[in-house]
Amino acid sequence: MTRYDAVVIGGGHNGLTAAAYLGRAGRRVLVLERRHVLGGAAVTEEVFPGFRISVCSYVVSLLRPEIIRELDLPRHGLEILPLDGTFTPMQGGDYLWRVNDHAATRREIARHSKLDAEAYDEYGKAMVDMARFVKPILGMTPPDPMSLRPRDLLALLGLGRRFRALGAADRRNQLQLMTMSAVDFLDQWFETDVLKATMAASGVIGTFLGVRSPGTAYVLLHHYMGEIDGAFRSWGFSRGGTGAISNAIALAAREAGVEIRTEAPVARIRTHGGRATGVVLANGDEIESALVLSSVDPHLTFLEFLEPDDLPAEFVADVGRYKFRGSSGKVNLALDALPDFTCRPGPGAHLRGAISISPSVDYMERAYDQAKYGEFSRRPYIDMVIPTLTDPSVAPPGKHILSCFVQYAPYRLAQGTWDDQREAFGDAVVDTIAEFAPNIRRIIRHRQVLTPLDLEREFGLTEGNIFQGELTLEQLFFLRPAPGWAQYATPIQGLWMCGSAAHPGGGIMGAPGRNAALRILGRTR
Ligand SMILES: Cc1cc2nc3c(=O)[nH]c(=O)nc-3n(C[C@H](O)[C@H](O)[C@H](O)COP(=O)(O)OP(=O)(O)OC[C@H]3O[C@@H](n4cnc5c(N)ncnc54)[C@H](O)[C@@H]3O)c2cc1C
User: Fold this and answer.
1) Site to substitute for ligand 1 among 508, 509, 515, most atoms within 8 A of C-beta
2) Start-to-end C-alpha separation, the chain
3) Strand, coil or helix: what is 32?
4) pLDDT tens across 260-308, in order?
5) What's the CA-to-centroid distance between 225 and ligand 1, angstroms?
6) Distance between CA atoms of 182 and 177, rounded to whole angstroms?
7) Which site among 83, 215, 266, 395 is 20 to 30 Å from 154 CA-CA?
8) Which residues pair with 447 in a beta bridge?
9) Cis peptide bond prior to 392, omega within 30° of 0
10) By the 8 A CB rule, do 19 and 8 touch?
């Protein structure tokens, strides 16, 4: 039997990243992916003939530049194409259209409110400062505040010093971002409802919270932190869909000697004397390895792949408390033509960026109200993109893809099951789009509807949470995935976490995978 230095459970982009770093350090590494295709939630699949769809994640911004550089991803096919701005159609026939050109956006906001146009400059500067403060934290192993080890104390001291070095206004903003709701935070800067609603939307993505729930301001910052080639706050498409990112990382890993197997579901992690010794596949095959890295969530890793007796009871209780609470769905539409928005008819640059159905703060909060009581939103928040306008290679000539990220879709329905409700949910999404772009029903050729249950069944995302666990403050940084266990190690020696359930969390970032690998290699700060 081959004995590996490291076996990685899951061939999502984080598992692949960890494997690539270990492979480059000369370790003998095997990646085991349950599905027939690599990428996890960063995957492109030909769902309908000729339509290559980013089935789950659809835009990229958080992917760490150091990973792009160190793994030489452009040489392995990675190409990021800019996504220009956000277009929000409104109910009364107007719209808000922010683009990457600052002066143009300022003019557009001034059309709604002169005060807001001025505040936008200040806000942009403050958020960049905040993002600069938080950004280095993405690449670090979180210190354990309960430990007296010099390494942890020094890291905590370093964080404290950086916080003290911020100006008074930045310190206040930072504290507010950590505690306030997205809407309360934005209310301090802006008066235009549609502007606040659209900005606040990024504060609720992947959480079971509304735009007025405390804690959502931080998620807003999390989504603000992306960068492409050093430009803050730019989102982009990956040519070939988000699966092309995973494939580029897989190529870098293979080049470093990593072996990758698909259709190889892991059923159990083997342990002996409190140490991981390998894994057992669903077909019974046993694989021996000195280290096991898990890029799947804590529920699967600790409660499914291990026996409760393998772990300290307190840790099992912490894992049991970890919140998933999936709240999102995805509807992918293959179109014969472009949607035509009543408020800005015809084709145009407004269709090339994100299209956000978030016309007002009350609309957003009402969408959440229904979810609180176990119903999917009848008029949901929808974040849409048409990747074919930037990368026509993913659909047949003249055809388009409309990728719709939808909230809210609670994992637990008060009535019925998701298998009964799937098409009704898809209809609610199409009906909502039709309120703003009435031609939508006529131009739909195919429709794929993914509920939180589908995300769990097909992608192994427990309760359908898109980030392998909510990005809420009580489970971030030194609390992710459990207090005392945020340094990628686990109570089982030789078993490490390396996916989105580890710091710094979800999104196509690669940071958990890289951080875990560097920690294993003893190269962390
Ligand atoms: C609908 C949706 C939309 C999203 N939109 C965006 C977006 O636009 N931009 C963005 O940055 N992020 C987005 N995200 C989040 C982002 O895609 C994820 O946070 C990220 O891809 C997670 O990567 P990962 O490698 O940590 O985990 P995953 O991608 O979850 O990978 C884990 C892998 O493990 C495999 N696996 C599960 N069980 C087993 C087993 N028993 N044995 C072997 N393998 C197993 C899975 O099949 C999967 O391939 C979205 C996610 C979803 C679901």
Assistant:
1) 508
2) 36
3) strand
4) 999 999 999 999 999 999 999 999 999 999 999 999 999 999 999 999 8
5) 19
6) 8
7) 215
8) 333
9) no
10) yes
Nearest CA to ligand 1 atom 53: 466
Q: Can you read off the two tokens belonging to residue 239?
A: 């040519």
- How many Å apart are CA 491 and CA 10, to the nearest integer? 20
* Closest of 407, 87, 353 to residue 234, by C-alpha: 353
Q: Kind of pairing, strands 29-32 and 3-9?
A: parallel
Q: Quick check: 372 and 30 in contact, CB under 8 A?
A: no
Written in H, E and C, the secondary structure of 316-360 is HHHHHHCCCCCCEEEEEEEECCCCCECCECCCCHHHCCEEEECCC
Cβ pair 27, 5 in contact under 8 A: yes
Instruction: Give the ranges where 180-242 is alpha helix by DSSP (H).
Output: 182-187, 193-201, 216-224
Please tell me the distance from the alpha carbon of residue 157 to that of residue 138, in angstroms, as a whole number. Answer: 17
Q: Which of 2-11, 145-154, 302-311, 462-471 has the lowest mean pLDDT?
A: 145-154
Detail the DSSP E strand segments found in 426-517: 444-450, 495-497
Tokens of 30: 């095997």
3-state secondary structure of 47: strand
Closest ligand 1 atom, CA of 501? Answer: 26
Higher-scoring residue by pLDDT: 62, 335: 335
* Tokens matching residue 459: 């992608």
- Rounded to two decimals, the pTM is 0.96
| Beta carbons within 8 Å of 167's beta carbon, 6+ residues apart | none
- Cα gap 156→140, rounded to integer Å: 11
Map residue 31 onto helix, strand or coil. Answer: strand
Cis bond upstream, residue 363 (ω within 30): no
Determine how many CB atoms are found less than 10 A away from the CB of residue 50: 11
- In this structure, what token pair is assigned to residue 338? 């472009």
525 band by pLDDT with thresholds 50, 70 and 90: very low
Please give the full DSSP string across 359-425, using - where no structure is assigned.
--HHHHHHHHHHHHTT---SS-EEEEE-GGGT-GGGSSTT-EEEEEEEE---SS-SSS-HHHHHHHH
The two beta strands, 3-9 and 286-294, are parallel
| pLDDT > 90: percent of the chain | 85
Q: Which residue has the tokens 């306008």?
A: 389
- Alpha-carbon gap, residue 79 to 185, rounded angstroms: 35
Residue 219 is predicted with a pLDDT of 81
CA separation for the pair 399, 330 (Å, rounded):
20
| Ligand 1 neighbours by CB, cut-off 6 Å | 9-15, 32-35, 40-42, 56-60, 62, 265-266, 295-296, 300, 328, 330, 405, 455, 459-461, 466-468, 499-500, 506-508
486: number of CA atoms within 13 Å, CB side?
A: 26
